[in-house]
Specification:
Length: 236
């Protein structure tokens, strides 16, 4: 009789727990929908976190990390999904790691994930990011190869945003890749390739007159050229 009572108590507890879990899931699913409808990003993050605690899911973790990264909360994104490269990771998971590590100034780690993305889906966007990181790592040959790929496959409608000025702006991806090519060829040989780099930056500005970063770089290289060709004053 005592065993029967104990069994009934365990079953009852299990049913109550299952019912509570089910009710919590419904509650936070509804909460998530409401926060999403209101455009409340922090509310969506809270809802997703609770849902993932109640019913863990890699897909939920990936989505939560993606929301963090779109908000510029890169460390939180990586804390959610880690920094390991796994062949089974989703594209979103891999992209979040790539973006976050680049934003956190970890080019050596970030490039590994961008290269994985390029293997899965080679395109001009990812080619630009790899070229940028390879340039930072002074692997100019690899950077140029990715720039050349990007320029060969870029489409007119492709754009890239830049944030170095007070007001963010957008340029054509072709213009961005041309700018990146200028940086690469200049760094490959800062003396012999100076004129070529200036010409490329000029081409980028013809494509996008608002390309502030290209203008700053072109002005700097032209100043360098002028300084190098200035005839020294004769001393009596």
């Amino acid at each position: 009789m005592k065993k029967l009572i104990l069994l009934l108590a365990v079953v009852t507890t299990f049913n109550v727990t299952a019912q509570t879990k089910s009710e919590l899931l419904k509650h936070f699913e509804a909460y998530h929908k409401e926060m999403k409808g209101q455009g409340d990003v922090q509310g969506v993050i809270n809802a997703m976190t609770h849902l993932n605690v109640i019913q863990p899911s890699q897909q939920r973790s990936d989505t939560l990390a993606y929301i963090y990264v779109t908000e510029g909360r890169n460390l939180e994104a990586l804390n959610t999904i880690g920094i390991d490269l796994n062949a089974t990771d989703s594209d979103i998971n891999t992209e979040v790691k790539a973006i976050s590590l680049k934003a956190l100034n970890q080019p050596e780690r970030a490039v590994v994930f961008y290269e994985e993305l390029f293997k899965r889906n080679a395109n001009s966007y990812v080619a630009y990011e790899i070229a940028d990181l390879k340039t930072q790592l002074q692997d100019f040959a690899s950077a140029k190869a990715k720039v050349d790929y990007g320029l060969t496959n870029v489409k007119p409608e492709m754009k890239r945003s830049f944030y170095e000025s007070q007001r963010p702006y957008e340029v054509s991806l072709k213009g961005a890749l041309t700018y990146m090519k200028a940086l690469v060829v200049f760094n490959m040989n800062q003396t012999d390739n100076l004129d070529q780099a200036i010409t490329l930056l000029g081409e980028a500005l013809v494509m996008d007159a608002n390309f502030n970063l290209a203008k700053i770089s072109k002005d700097a290289l032209e100043a360098r050229k002028a300084k190098g060709t200035t005839t020294p004053e004769k001393k009596n």
